[in-house]
Amino acid sequence: MSAGYEVVALFWEQITSKPGQPLEYVRHRRGTVVHIDDAAEVQRLVNAGAIRNASSGQDSPQPGHGDVSTTLKDENEQGKPATADELLADVGDDPEKAAAVLEVEKASDKPRSTLIAKLEKVIEKAAAES
Predict the structure, then answer these.
(1) Would you kindly state where each structural domain of the chain is located, as residue ranges?
(2) Is the pTM of this model over 0.90?
(3) How confident is the model over 79-111, as pLDDT tens digits?
(4) Exposure class string for 7-46: b at 16+ Cβ within 10 A, else e
(5) 3 state SS of 80
(6) CB distance 27 to 11 below 8 Å
């Protein structure tokens, strides 16, 4: 079994399809612990600063910067796409989380306008309070 690695980049898209097949991937968010069997892939991601050994405990993301699922392709704990309500509950009043979710949501194939508007309100509220 492979060692666990924590995603320290905003996200990492792990390609799960085989060459020549339609592209399929899983998006892992910052703070997620992943298991990677390919040593070359581990080395590439470590060199890029995208992952680190999960047991090292060094340079941990700041509190509140854990796993944030943000697009229709992302899955919740039941293996279903994350809903807007689940995302908003995860974001709470954290403007940094809101900005991360907003960035990915805007880049998605089917951005959800209501979700985008609510995320922008979280960011605007925090800016007005500072």
Answers:
(1) 1-66, 68-130
(2) no
(3) 566 788 888 888 889 888 888 888 888 877 788
(4) bbeebbeeeeeeeeeeeeeebbbbebebebeeeeebeebe
(5) coil
(6) yes
